[in-house]
Amino acid sequence: MKNPVLLLSGLVLLSLNSIFAQEKDTASLGIYINSIYDFRLDEKSFMADVWLWVNYKNDSLDFENSLDFPNSKTAEFSHFTKEKKGGWNWVTQKCKAQVMHQWDVSCFPFDKQHLRIEIEDSEYDTSQLVYLADQANSKLDTSFNSNEWHIEKFMVYEDVRTYQTTYGNPELSGKSSYPRVVAEIIIQRNNSWIMLAKLLTGAYVAFFISCLVFFVSSENQDSRFGLCVGALFAAIGNKYIVESIVPTSTTNSLMDNVHNLTFTFILLIVVIIVISLSLFESDDVRKKALSLRLDKYAFFSTLVLYCVVNAVLIYNASS
To answer: What are 128-153's pLDDT values in tens digits?
Structure first.
């Protein structure tokens, strides 16, 4: 029978060898964002100029062609440098990227956008390398100034992206994971109320014009229907103008909801004046009096109801 002490020592050595064999290299990755600009809602992208750096100790690692921007349309790397600083390898390079972003315009012009810049290692997977975000030195240039946007928050954190493929790596099976660092910028649109007023003035004016039909006598039925038709076309024209500025989305935005509300109320007004006209043309004196009262109360009720629903839509979008 083998000596139990020798057996135990062997097991300990095997465990230590297994631990050291699985030890991963660690690198600190940081980002300095010089500028973000050229926000393209139609192309679902924005431009970013950044400086990247990596600090690590293992001299065998090579980051010259290792970093990638997986959520970019194009990325141009330049100014690659590598130096030895106090026992650390220090790699820096500059990048200009067109970053993809799905602009959420459902609350436009009260929208808040979460911009993400993802830096991922395309050579070393998580079994070889782990990234730590250099949060102390990663910054967004304070000179960023936009009349349309202001920055609410900037954060940098490490992450891991898992792909459902090994890309043919014989040492892996089923899937593969790669380390990454993510920079997230939260921006809020400026002057939202002014922009809202500019974009929806046409729709509001169209609705108020349609409300004026209640002050036109039922004897002038052509004028009544003419005002409603004119208001409807004005509202449709305003919607086309807004859609040329705000890209369409698969869900209803605030702009869509306000225009649909305007169309619905103009249609409701047409229905009311048709009923009022039917009562007015009756030989019954009481029905003619009811027609006049209907016009009077319909003006105030439709105006108040439209304003209330409109206010609720805007409040929900802005909050």
So the answer is: 899 999 999 999 987 776 778 888 99
* Backbone dihedral angles phi then psi of residue 174, each to the nearest 5 degrees: 85, -60
Please write the tens of the pLDDT for every residue from 242-251: 988 887 777 7
Statement to judge: residues 89 and 234 lie in one domain: no
Strands 139-140, 25-40: pairing is: parallel
| CATH code (residue 227) | 1.20.58.390
Dig out the tokens for 109 from the structure: 């012009």
When pLDDT is cut at 50, 70 and 90, the band that residue 20 belongs to is very low
Residue 46 in tokens: 């924005």
Asked whether residue 107 falls in the same domain as residue 238, the answer is no
- 3-class DSSP state of 150: strand
Tokens of 38: 């050229």
Full residue range of the structural domain in which residue 67 is found: 25-190
Tokens for 30? 């940081």
Quick check: is 6 in a domain? Answer: no
**pLDDT of the residue at 92:** 95
pLDDT computed for residue 13 by the predictor: 46
Task: Give the Cα separation of 17 and 21 in Å (integer).
Answer: 6
Q: What is the pTM of this model?
A: 0.77
How many Å apart are CA 91 and CA 113, to the nearest integer? 31
